[in-house]
Amino acid sequence: MRRLLVALISAAALLFAGLASATTATAGSARTIAFFADWAPWTPYAIGAVVTYNGTSYTAIQAHTSQPGWEPPNVPALWRSGGGNPQPGVPGQPGNVSTTVTNTSIALSWGASSGTVTGYRVYEGTALRTTVTGTSATISGLGVCTSHTYTVKAYNSVGESTGRDASATTSGCTNPDPPGKMAGAPYLYMGWGNPPAPATVMSATGVKSFTMAFILASGGCNPAWDGNRPLTGGTDAQAISAIKNAGGNVQISFGGWSGNKLGPNCSTPAAFAGAVQQVINAVGPAVVDFDIENTDEFENYTVQDRILNGLKIVKQNNPSVKIVVTFGTTRTGPNSHGVRLINQAKALSVPIDNFTIMPFDFGGSNMYQDTVNASEGLKTALKNAYGYTDAQAYARMGISGMNGLSDQQELTSPATWTQIRDWAKSKGLTRLAYWAVNRDRPCPGGGVQSNCSGIAQADWEFTRITAGF
């Protein structure tokens, strides 16, 4: 797959971004007018670089190499409206924005800005929606079940502050949840990336479910967290207990991209099912998720079949536990290995509740449209294998994304993830997840990290969006 490289440019690269200035004189005074280069794709921009797009100036808030579809107004995680550093004397950036919705309105509230503040302006894109003197505003007259992204800026006689963004969807969506729909369940990994306390995240976001990763093999066909932490009594069990005590439930994920996995190590379907049963008995999950990836499982058809036949036994012994298989995709749908997995599941009569694709690390440029296209390709594969209608296929489908910057530097912003969630809801998909809660923290310009998203965002913003699935 094509890799998209993010250039890490020094401050001197501001010159490359096209910053220049010219001085003009008026009677009795002089002033400096800044001229900025037009935004262009495939161009490295440093933090602080200023460009012009459709007559509006934008300042880069994280280093990146631009691509088609990443125009400044489309990716607020990369650009903020306005050129250069804020003028001395303008207010500080408003605090994080919280939202409350009705069928036709979205109420916003935020932390007060520092400095001298005359009031606050609330924008939707470049359109001014309202101006207030306090730290709250309500936007009314909206459509039922519609999504909106707002930017709050403080202002005074000197100018405007840097904006603070928030996305929300009005209530009143009339599409009933399809049978078998699972709660939005982002991945949480207790062995990596400064894992947060799940109860803290639940309280802050309203999320009720997590996908706990990953069960691997420990010394043969023996399940353990990460292949080395015990099923009970350890940090994973403590996190699961905290989730359940807070009224939530868990999905347990087996496999993943790397590590010593059960599929290759368990010699028979019965042995594989027995290992899975140990986990079910220890944890009591609502869902078991099998991330079938890489050459050892996804591209090894002997192991694929062993897992599929093992899942038949798992379902027979645990009819109330949902079974999910998760695998990679191209931008147009499953590749040959994914199509083979779907067709073989049908041929072997494996009762899989949900087929989830991972639409990232696939050379994406417009992550919303690429995700939709990949999902439609999955729908086609399911219809071809099972003879489903569109609605039946959607009801067996899920999406598992990657928040912020992916391994290949693909960008999924909170606004894009909201679009993906709303599309999934509108089509009746039954699973939504992302990798990972550990990364659901801001670190603009930080690149791909285990404990933050690499972009500007509010803490737990992707989890909050996922909770609305």
From TrEMBL:
Pfam families to which the protein is assigned, alphabetical: CBM_5_12, fn3
Disordered, as annotated region: 74-95
Location of the Fibronectin type-III domain: 90-177
Alphabetical GO biological process terms: polysaccharide catabolic process
Keywords linked to the UniProt accession: Carbohydrate metabolism, Glycosidase, Hydrolase, Polysaccharide degradation, Signal
Residues spanning the signal sequence: 1-22
Gene Ontology molecular function, alphabetical: carbohydrate binding; hydrolase activity, hydrolyzing O-glycosyl compounds
One GO CC term on file: extracellular region
InterPro entries: CBM5/12, CBM_sf_5/12, FN3_dom, FN3_sf, GH, GH18_Chitinase, Ig-like_fold
Protein name (database record): Fibronectin type-III domain-containing protein
Native source organism of the sequence: Nonomuraea endophytica
